[in-house]
Amino acid sequence: MTRPFLSVEDLVVHFPTPDGVVRATDGLSYTLEPGKTLGIVGESGSGKSVSSSAILGLHRKTSAQVSGRIWLDGVDLLSLSDKEMQQRRGKDVAMIFQDPLSALHPYYTIGNQVAEAYRVHNEVSKKQARERAIEMLDRVGIPNAKQRVDDYPHQFSGGMRQRAMIAMALINDPELLIADEPTTALDVTVQAQILDLLQDLQREFNTALIMITHDLGVIAEVADDVLVMYAGRAVEYGTTKQLLTAPAMPYTLGLIQSVPDLTSDVNEPLRPIPGNPPSLLDAPNGCAFAPRCTFKHLVDPPSLPDEVMPELEEIAPGHLRRCHLKEHDLSKLIPLAAEKVEEPV
Amino acid sequence: MSAPLLEVKDLTMHFPIKQRGIITRTVGHVKAVDGVSFSIGAGEALGLVGESGSGKSTTGRLITRLYQPTSGQILFEGKDISKSSARELKPIRRDIQMIFQDPYTSLNPRHTVGEIISAPLEIHNLVPKGSRLRRVQELLETVGLNPEHYNRYPHEFSGGQRQRIGIARALTMSPKLLVADEPVSALDVSIQAQIINLLKDLQKEMGIAFLFIAHDLAIVRHFCPQVAVMYLGKIVENAPREQLYTNPQHAYTKSLLSAVPDMRQAVVGGRRERIRYTHDVEASAASTAANTAAAASPSA
């Protein structure tokens, strides 16, 4: 059997703290093929960034307990030594961060930083690296790259900084690119440009892309598959079309319903998900979403979600969900949804 | 027709660019707000959208008079407050309150929720000391928090709950106008809708007028029947919501709308056509006949 290009298997990231163990990621599995995009959705603290940083080996061994398998092109990244990981980081796997201003060093020129990423992994002269940096900056749409290469980050606008970050991430032609909320800090018009650019470059280099975001609109535009995370676990996984048109887990449905779009009825109140996200310190034994679920009373018996964690089950080819409800088509249940949930005080 | 609650006429805010040397001198100005006019009636909501740097937040801060405008008029209930002194402004500050973007930095971490919410009562000396606690609890209940939590500190609350505290503080004085500067953009998606619904309920029950500043076009559409689009310090289009979103007149509005990611795209597949906007704002603002606000400001 051939293994998928990227296969994350039962990934666990725990942070021991004086107050207890923070289960940031708890048994996460997914796969990704070259040229495809996986969208990871979830709110802050759901473990989407933590699990992705684990692929790059960014967790310090003294403060985080990481276990499971991360197979990239036949190699388990978690079994590599620090030195071996260092050789792959930025070469085979690269990452784009949310805030380009804090991800770029203010004291070095853009060109310097982009060229450095190239020199670390290639035996080239400074001059060659600079040429390559200019070429990449030009490729990501920085006008007048030859002159701008000597600018400092503060001389770039937000969108241009993010372009420089993309140039830096792609300069070694990585097989896997992780973009952690790459457009959250940007204006919508700039966001659209950056998303278009990422997709063009992905097609050109056949890169596998993990797009971490909380914006379902962004997911709809770029992702082939979507993984929805809640409290450190996958709660729903499937193709973008499956998830957005036929969500089978109440949290996914709640996310879709709570966002207005440019055509929704303005006289209808928005339908928010009640309550607040759980603390990862004392995660409940049962379904983590149960305290906020408006369908909980439809489960037989209604106490089941509080006591037993549901398993990920396949409800259609390639469509997985973690839920106790018998019904797969949640649209049938919407009229039966509870008005309120009991708020924990 | 009676006069609107708030009327802004040809408002400008120019920040000086200073060059430091032996003698510090002003070498130019950033025209953050450059001839902006609009009005808001009692109990109405005006949305102000635009990119970062378009001057929308500065406009909000001018109306709450956190800044002194360079020129122009801010008529609140017919009285020009653009040049009022701090003393003259004090009674007006009861009527104009603000909700801030970041619920983490806009609450004093060393004060309890009760102290935060009752601070305006103390400053304006309105409610006698003995009944302040009752007022605080009333307000906590209004914004959907447990009234018994007045003794807790901000760090004990989640982001959404903190934003509710910020809203309670703004409501203490029963304001007539609330300036909400990106009130939900720092919150998780599932929480944003809770806050929007709360603000909408408050508007209905208390008849508060809103200047709703945000960059999320879908949320502004949901909240505001009238929407103004700002670009480089000017309002380029100001129209009723139906008109602005279905039939935008200005090229910049069209470009902005075409850039909004759309969930329904998953069903259609492929990529939507984007409209790029790289036009000179002066020329285009003048050419938009529908836009009375920008046409009224031929300055610059």
Could you give a short description of this structure?
The complex is a heterodimer of chains A (345) and B (300). Chain A has helices at 48-55, 82-88, 100-103, 110-121, 126-139, 145-148, 158-170, 188-205, 216-222, 240-245, 250-258, 304-307, and strands at residues 6-17, 20-32, 37-41, 65-72, 75-76, 93-96, 176-180, 208-213, 225-230, 233-239, 312-316, 319-322.
Characterization of the model:
The complex is a heterodimer of chains A (345) and B (300). Chain A is of the alpha/beta class and 345 residues long. The model of chain A has no long low-confidence stretch (mean pLDDT 90). In chain A, helix 5 (126-139) crosses helix 7 and helix 7 packs parallel to helix 8 (188-205). Chain A is built from 12 helices and 12 strands. In chain A, a hairpin with a 2-residue loop joins strand 11 (312-316) and strand 12 (319-322). Chain A has helices at residues 48-55, 82-88, 100-103, 110-121, 126-139, 145-148, 158-170, 188-205, 216-222, 240-245, 250-258, 304-307; strands at 6-17, 20-32, 37-41, 65-72, 75-76, 93-96, 176-180, 208-213, 225-230, 233-239, 312-316, 319-322. Among the domains of chain A are: 103-172, no CATH class; 247-336, no CATH class. Chain A has an 8-stranded mixed sheet, with helices on both faces. A 4-stranded antiparallel sheet of chain A has the order 2-1-4-5. Chain B has 300 residues and is an alpha/beta fold. Chain B has one domain: P-loop containing nucleotide triphosphate hydrolases (Rossmann fold). Chain B has helices at residues 56-63, 86-95, 113-124, 129-142, 159-171, 189-206, 217-223, 241-246, 251-259, 265-268, 281-287, 292-295; strands spanning 6-19, 25-40, 45-49, 71-76, 79-80, 96-99, 177-181, 209-213, 226-231, 234-240. A 6-stranded mixed sheet of chain B has the order 6-7-8-3-9-10, with helices on both faces. In chain B, strands 2-1-4-5 form a 4-stranded antiparallel sheet. In chain B, a hairpin with a 5-residue loop joins strand 1 (6-19) and strand 2 (25-40). In chain B, helix 5 packs parallel to helix 6.
